[in-house]
Amino acid sequence: MLDDRIEGDTDWDPDAVRALWSLDPDVAHLNHGSFGAVPRATGEVQDRLRAESERNPVAWFRRLPDRIAAAREQLAEFCGGNAEGTALVANVSAAVSTVLAGIELAPEQEIVYTDHAYGAVRMAIERFSGGRARSVHLPLDADADEVLTRVTEAVDERTALVVVDQITSATAARLPAGAVVAACHARGIPVLVDGAHAPGMLAHPARDLDADFWTGNLHKWLYAPRSTAILSVAEQWRDRIEPPIVSWADPEGFPSNLEMGGTLDYTPWLAAPAGLYVLRTLGVDRVRAHNSTLVAYGQRVVGAALGLLSPSELPMPGGVTPSMRVLPLPSHAARTNADAIALRNRIADELRVVVPVSSWHGRGLIRLSAQVYNHPDEYDRLAAGLPRVLEALR
User: Domains (ranges, CATH) in the chain?
Assistant: First the structure.
């Protein structure tokens, strides 16, 4: 049982599940959405791969392309893509920058994105567009129809690319990415879907999306080592994808030219299928159901501690996500990014709870994640201590 305080159950032993990770038992890790947490089994596979590479480096690099291709095929299939149109990359930030570098803007053209975009993605858009970018505001209470309307009303003949999140980072909202892709394609506008949080959280997130570009991190909800992500590219765009590092694989084209960067560490990619194995062993649907039930409980108890009447009903653009929820903080807290960082650090130091805090349009938000190693007591700890920490900021 998860706990008699929440609905839903599982036959997992909480202590046994927690032991699958190397997490500090004295810390409530409620931030799986940022850096993930690598299961011990996945890390052990990566350690063995590193040891193998040092026993015979020449043989290691000779076999490397075939092994990367095999890993890519498994990971792309799980996410709903295909190996021929997918490349392994370090992370979504790297994928987005690579795509944007291949988009040639005419002087009158611009890139459209939403104000829920991840900070590094927003900065990349500004850099590669030369400042020719338009941000679309999506209110926190916008439903899927309003999200679609606001985005489509913002595009016109000047739009060279639309960038939309599948699941947003700071606001933990699920946007109607598929509908945005369809509407933009009807106007001949390509779309890049940022699915950083989608692999593992959503079933086959790249399938039937028909995006020109889709990218997702595998270190978050797919239990892969960090520095593992995939980028899927529609066939008509693949010859526009140029790698940041020109290697001997450059003449082979996408995806090999993007993946091979010389003497880099490729063990995270080769170990990533081990993370997928852990997820499948636990049960993909069971993990999602567990996380959804637990994060809803966390939002409820922390929201009650903050004096919110119905935090579980807090609207998010397009809808809530299975494994993350946000709560608004009092108006005096986290008005700026610097304040948000300071509050995040104070919560970690004083409460031994790791949880992200952000400032979105001057409004402080705290984001809760749930993973199978979490327990209701950890959200109770945050609920008990957070009001005191916030009061000290006045």
Answer: 14-30+283-391 (3.90.1150.10), 43-277 (3.40.640.10)
